[in-house]
């Protein structure tokens, strides 16, 4: 340990926005202090931002408390301003000083500095951030030299294929910077393992979507790196592996707190999760008395938040314990309609103590979350939302309880959801309309999290993600198996359930294996196949919401078939022995499982008995499975099929579609592919998890009560949905006025006549001030009688089926026989 040369009231470690603000306020108050920075410059995090980066000052409605100025602007201007103000304020800065250990007690802390003398301080403020500990890629080839975790100057790179890995603000900003100058001729791709950019600021997401629309950036959703090779990157997509050219990888996959250093001081974290943050009080004090944490290490990465914390922590140390956070007026206004006249702090205590998904959040994180949420109070009997209402937000119950009307024909049949739990998570996950009416069972207080806020919470708070997963798995299990089961009945098996991501083509269950687990499909779909003569034969398709694996569990046999993912999917794995105990305790459930198993045994026996008749079984399998997956049937909820043995080519289906939609047909009968005698025309599949909904800025794409995916009048014509649809079933078109009726056309020549209006007529009559809108099949939602294409077919050739019924429609077994 070196000699003590500085004795101060407060030592501030780290000169990011939080540390700078704290040091500037300490200097302004005349408090003896030292700002310790391990580099030779201030604010290393912002210093390492890419050249010319525009720094945002969000949230815009939050007042800035600091002796330093800050507003949105260029990185260089902000750094120059802070350097000047720190010098003018006579802040005591110790550069090139790396703190290696902090020991002692309040009033007498010793900060050991590598190669320098020791600093003695009465209090310590850690503002060290997390950027020095980036999360490294964990895939084969991650040690190759063309991977970098920092982008200093986007203008240095020319004529390269560059892939940015990471969907937060840093990744988006790097991608935008690399694609900003067309003269650089870079091909820029950004990977997002999810389908939305929940971690990023709305303004950044909008800029990215504009760049995607202009063709400057390739955005790959539901895609992650699988292997890095020289000059190539292997991608894991929802449809399987894909290889792209890649000269350089910019990995912006977040960072983690320097946990070993912090825990060695005596500071506890909220959990053992690698991404957890230190446990803090309202005054930023840790479990080690006298040590405070602010900034990104406290879970507050936004610059304005960090600067406010720096100011506030010095005020607390100076004895101003009555100081309220800068967001206090905003939260007071937000909480004012709630009952009981409680203070903001009292309500935050209630939310943190009562709601399971908030249980590991610090008061500081909870405050930030409340800024993006809506709190509401309901009287007993009030409706929170109604079946078929649009909505993708999630609700948490802070006080009271709700009942869910599970039977639309009889509102008296309900299921309760108790205080502390959540509801609305189905809309959050699937994007579907509300599946049931929910009303208050007693006086109720809820917190409604917007979809982005909920997804961000799940992504950044491990405990919240676990809680949402457990609750959604429990409800899916109860909904699927029913038979009078209660939460108590399934508690053991749900607790043991393990959510697993499955790559497209990945095998989940192998024929002949002796494992004994049961699986539920949460997302995606599965293909079931059986080996005949050493070749795989396609048996069936399992959509999301199905289960499999029960046959080997119930009768103890080896697996009778192989089950693998048709597309990138998510399954929940349950231990077989627990499922058996549940069956033994619930005869009705066992009866249902045995009936399901009987049907599957019959299909397997049919194939086995006729194995000599199959001829080239491999060809049959590959053609069937490839057709299902390539044409989107493997992820569809509704498919339009045309039986080519019955179709007479009259085009009544197209004309009826156009006449039902103001002269714009939603299908192309001749386009598309065929299998056997069935043709799949170009018409929407109404995917279980629609690609088109992933990036719709006005949220104009909704899901109806029957699963139909439709586009409402708020469409702004951005074209994101058209680009995201892999099946080419969405087009952008000018919307003409409503066509005159058939009688008006016949008698007076008004309008373009039956069927789709010509392009010339649409162009002539369209409103030039209105942008083009996205046009796609909506399953004739709201039109009496259902889909017009089916009703208009004179021969019955046009039919709409769910994908799990596709094979029965093809009459595959008859062809085999």
Automatic annotation (TrEMBL):
GO terms for molecular function: 4 iron, 4 sulfur cluster binding; metal ion binding. Residues 357-458, 481-600 form the Cyclic nucleotide-binding domain. Keywords: 4Fe-4S, Electron transport, Iron, Iron-sulfur, Metal-binding, Transport. CDD domains: CAP_ED, DMSOR_beta_like. It comes from the Bacteria. Residues 638-670, 675-706, 707-735, 771-804 form the 4Fe-4S ferredoxin-type domain. This is Oxidoreductase. It comes from Aurantiacibacter marinus.
């Amino acid at each position: 340990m070196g000699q003590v040369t500085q004795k101060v009231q407060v030592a501030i470690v780290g000169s990011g926005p939080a540390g700078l603000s704290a040091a500037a306020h300490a200097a302004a108050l005349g408090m003896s202090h030292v700002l310790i920075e391990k580099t030779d410059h201030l604010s290393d995090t912002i210093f390492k931002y890419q050249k010319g980066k525009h720094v945002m000052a969000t949230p815009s409605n939050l007042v800035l408390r600091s002796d330093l100025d800050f507003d949105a602007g260029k990185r260089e201007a902000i750094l120059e301003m802070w350097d000047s103000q720190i010098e003018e304020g006579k802040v005591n800065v110790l550069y090139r000083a790396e703190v290696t250990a902090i020991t002692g007690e309040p009033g007498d802390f010793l900060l050991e500095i590598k190669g320098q003398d020791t600093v003695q301080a009465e209090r310590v403020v850690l503002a060290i951030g997390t950027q020095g500990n980036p999360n490294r890629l964990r895939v084969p080839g991650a040690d190759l030299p063309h991977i970098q975790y920092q982008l200093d100057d986007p203008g240095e790179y020319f004529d390269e294929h560059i892939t940015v890995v990471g969907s937060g603000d840093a990744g988006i900003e790097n991608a935008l910077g690399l694609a900003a100058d067309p003269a650089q001729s870079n091909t820029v791709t950004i990977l997002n393992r999810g389908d939305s950019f929940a971690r990023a600021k709305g303004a950044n997401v909008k800029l990215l979507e504009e760049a995607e629309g202009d063709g400057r950036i390739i955005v790959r959703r539901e895609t992650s790196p699988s292997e890095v090779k020289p000059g190539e990157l292997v991608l894991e997509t929802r449809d399987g592996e894909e290889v792209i050219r890649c000269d350089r990888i910019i990995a912006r996959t977040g960072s983690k707190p320097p946990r070993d250093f912090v825990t060695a001081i005596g500071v506890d974290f909220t959990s053992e999760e690698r991404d957890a943050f230190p446990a803090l009080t309202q005054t930023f004090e840790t479990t080690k008395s006298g040590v405070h944490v602010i900034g990104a290490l406290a879970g507050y990465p936004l610059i304005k938040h960090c600067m406010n914390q720096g100011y506030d922590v010095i005020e607390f140390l100076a004895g101003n314990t009555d100081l309220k956070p800068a967001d206090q007026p905003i939260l007071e206004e937000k909480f004012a309609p709630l009952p009981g006249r409680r203070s903001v702090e009292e309500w935050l205590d209630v939310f943190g103590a009562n709601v399971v998904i908030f249980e590991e959040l610090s008061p500081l994180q909870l405050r930030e979350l409340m800024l993006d949420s809506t709190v509401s109070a309901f009287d007993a009997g009030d409706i929170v939302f109604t079946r078929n209402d649009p909505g993708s937000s999630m609700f948490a119950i802070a006080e009271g309880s709700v009942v869910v009307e599970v039977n639309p024909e009889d509102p008296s049949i309900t299921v309760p959801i108790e205080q502390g739990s959540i509801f609305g998570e189905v809309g959050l996950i699937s994007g579907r309309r509300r599946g049931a009416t929910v009303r208050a069972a007693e006086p109720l207080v809820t917190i409604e999290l917007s979809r982005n806020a909920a997804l961000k919470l799940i992504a950044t708070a491990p405990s919240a993600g676990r809680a949402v997963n457990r609750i959604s798995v429990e409800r899916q299990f109860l909904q699927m198996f029913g038979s009078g089961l209660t939460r108590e009945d399934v508690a053991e098996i749900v607790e043991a359930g393990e959510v697993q991501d499955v790559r497209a083509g990945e095998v989940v269950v192998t024929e002949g294996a002796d494992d004994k687990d049961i699986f539920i499909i949460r997302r995606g779909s599965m293909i079931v196949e059986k080996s005949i003569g050493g070749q795989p034969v396609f048996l069936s398709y399992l959509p999301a919401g199905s289960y499999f694996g029960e046959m080997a569990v119930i009768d103890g046999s080896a697996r009778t078939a192989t089950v693998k993912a048709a597309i990138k999917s998510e399954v929940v794995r349950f231990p077989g022995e627990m499922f058996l105990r549940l069956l033994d305790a619930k005869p009705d459930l066992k009866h249902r499982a045995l009936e399901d198993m009987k049907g599957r045994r019959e299909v397997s026996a049919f194939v086995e008995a006729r194995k000599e008749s199959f001829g080239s079984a491999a060809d049959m399998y590959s053609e069937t499975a490839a057709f299902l997956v390539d044409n989107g049937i493997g992820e569809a909820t509704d498919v339009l099929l045309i039986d080519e043995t019955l179709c007479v080519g009259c085009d009544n289906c197209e004309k009826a579609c156009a006449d039902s939609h103001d002269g714009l047909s939603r299908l192309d009968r001749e386009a598309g592919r065929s299998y056997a005698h069935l043709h799949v025309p170009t018409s929407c599949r109404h995917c279980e998890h629609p690609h088109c909904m992933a990036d719709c800025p006005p949220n104009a794409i909704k899901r109806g009560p029957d699963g139909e995916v439709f586009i409402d009048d708020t469409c702004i014509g951005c074209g994101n949905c058209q680009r995201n649809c892999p099946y080419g079933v969405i087009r952008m078109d000018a919307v003409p006025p409503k066509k005159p009726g058939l009688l008006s056309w016949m008698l007076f020549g008004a309008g373009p006549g039956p069927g789709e209006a010509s392009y010339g007529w649409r162009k002539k009559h369209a409103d030039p001030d209105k942008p083009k809108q996205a046009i796609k099949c909506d399953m004739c939602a709201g039109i009496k009688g259902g889909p017009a294409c089916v009703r208009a077919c004179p021969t019955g050739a046009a039919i709409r089926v769910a994908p799990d019924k596709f094979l029965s429609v093809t009459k595959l077994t008859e062809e085999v026989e």
